[in-house]
Design brief:
Blueprint lengths: L28 E4 L5 E7 L2 E4 H6 L19 H4 L3 H14 L8 H7 E3 L4 E2 L8 E4 L3 H11 L16 E3 L5 E3 L4 E2 L2 E6 L4 E6 L3 E2 L2 E7 L18 E8 L2 E2 H7 L13 E3 L4 E2 L7 E2 L19 E2 L2 E7 L6 E7 L7 H9 L10 E3 L14 H4 L7 E2 L5 E2 L7 E9 L4 E3 L3 E6 L11
Parallel strand pairs: 6-22, 8-16, 9-27
Antiparallel strand pairs: 1-2, 1-5, 2-3, 3-4, 6-7, 10-11, 12-15, 13-14, 13-22, 14-16, 14-17, 18-19, 20-21, 20-25, 23-24, 25-26, 25-27
Length: 428
């Protein structure tokens, strides 16, 4: 049993009722303190905990941590350590802050900070980013909209986790605003491309996992080994400019319609913390090739929500779904990614693809929720949304619920600003 997961454990740090950050969570992230110092940390309740200070104060004695591993501005060096070390650190944090223990008042002052006095930063330096397409309902919906509904899934989809490589440099933390992107779109009335701001800006509700250091180039990771190389998970908003994407994606797939931004939640919740929420996924038919077979419960029961707000109305629920709807689980995703010998590095991000359930209100994008704009959503101020407007803010949350506690990820909140002016005239 993982010690930190004891459902009866309580902390001497105050934890509000229904907090997403009980002592059973212990996520990892990076925050800026009031004095502007950036530090690696964790969180219990509404208290941010400076891991570098805990290390300096010798609280991690006996754990084989690399020297200065917490004296960084991202988690990458920590991710290069083994899963055994990750678990030892998380278990030790649970012991330090267990209600049966206590911390010296001076140590508390040095290591603990009210969360409202901190600013969350990017938790990892992302070297590579891959976006999968692992929700069967989402793939089916898109196929029905743009292809023959009788052949909604492409021939390869039920045989492997389909994916594309995205742009790592434009992954941003929650709270970072984005500008409406511009690019080429097809003006269908004249069958000619034009340049201008996207008219069809969309969110995509996803979960992502962050990797530790994988095997050398040329070797692969099996489904039974994959758990040792996945550190944790976060919420992922894979922004999409649908009109740019539609015009450019044939034959090589997404480019400018995707690479302008992707947003992630600030805390990485470890795979260990999510252990109690494992469930069986959908039975995969036809049978997979041998390298994609696995044993045990590999899907995760995580509740997901999307809300939209604007200057005229408060956050309004538009989608409620669950990560259990993924057809291809994260262990299969990692195995397929490496099966050709591709090397995996610490800090790589692999997103699930849009997560959609069977009910219309459980779809994970406006493309599906409004069925490509044919069924607009009415907002509290009476305005309608086919796709996102300037000054809309998209809020995403995720939470796994047990009987005695819940595990959350923190909100992904992003505001859309108007397109930036260009130095050349737009076509429209």
């Amino acid at each position: 049993m993982i010690k930190a997961n004891d459902s009866n454990r309580k902390s001497w740090i105050s934890v509000p009722k229904n907090s997403d950050f009980p002592i059973q969570n212990i996520p990892f992230g990076v925050f800026k303190k009031a004095n502007k110092e950036i530090c690696l940390g964790t969180r219990i309740g509404d208290t941010a905990i400076d891991l570098s200070q805990l290390n300096r104060l010798n609280y991690f004695k006996g754990i084989p941590l690399k020297k200065d591993v917490f004296e960084k501005d991202n988690l990458n060096e920590f991710l290069k350590q083994t899963k055994t070390v990750w678990r030892l650190v998380r278990d030790r944090i649970a012991e330090i802050f267990d209600i049966e223990n206590q911390m010296d008042a001076l140590h508390q002052k040095q290591a603990l900070h009210p969360i409202n006095t901190t600013q969350m930063m990017m938790p990892v330096k992302v070297g590579d980013y891959t976006d999968f397409y692992s929700s069967k309902q989402h793939a089916h919906n898109v196929g029905c909209m743009f292809r023959d509904p009788k052949k909604a899934l492409l021939p390869n989809w039920l045989h492997m986790p389909v994916a594309y490589h995205g742009r790592a440099s434009s992954i941003i933390p929650s709270g970072t605003n984005i500008h409406r992107p511009a690019g080429q779109q097809l003006l269908e009335a004249y069958n000619q491309p034009v340049f201008g701001p996207t008219k069809l800006l969309d969110f995509e509700l996803e979960m992502a996992f962050i990797t530790g250091q994988g095997k050398p180039l040329g070797e692969h990771i099996s489904t039974s080994e994959a758990e040792n190389y996945i550190f944790g998970m976060c919420i992922f908003n894979d922004w999409s400019a649908r009109d740019l994407q539609k015009w450019e994606y044939v034959p090589l797939g997404p480019f400018l319609g995707k690479n302008f931004a992707s947003s992630i939640s600030p805390w990485i919740v470890t795979l260990d913390a999510l252990e109690p929420f494992r469930i069986a996924g959908e039975v995969q038919k036809p049978d997979t090739l041998p390298y994609l077979k696995f044993r045990g419960r590999k899907n995760l029961d995580i509740h997901l929500e999307v809300k939209i707000s604007s200057e005229a109305f408060k956050p309004t629920l538009v989608s409620r779904t669950n990560s259990k709807h993924l057809y291809w689980n994260i262990f299969q995703q990692l195995t397929h990614h490496s099966i050709n010998g591709c090397n995996i590095n610490a800090g790589d991000i692999m997103a699930s693809g849009t997560i959609s359930g069977e009910k219309p209100n459980s779809y994970g994008s406006l493309l599906e929720l409004t069925w490509n704009g044919t069924k607009p959503i009415t907002m509290p101020d009476g305005t309608k949304r086919k796709f996102l407007n300037d000054y809309d803010t998209v809020h995403m949350t995720a939470c796994a619920k047990a009987k005695k506690y819940q595990i959350g990820f923190g909100e992904v909140k992003t505001k859309i600003l108007p397109a930036k002016k260009t130095s050349f005239p737009l076509n429209y």
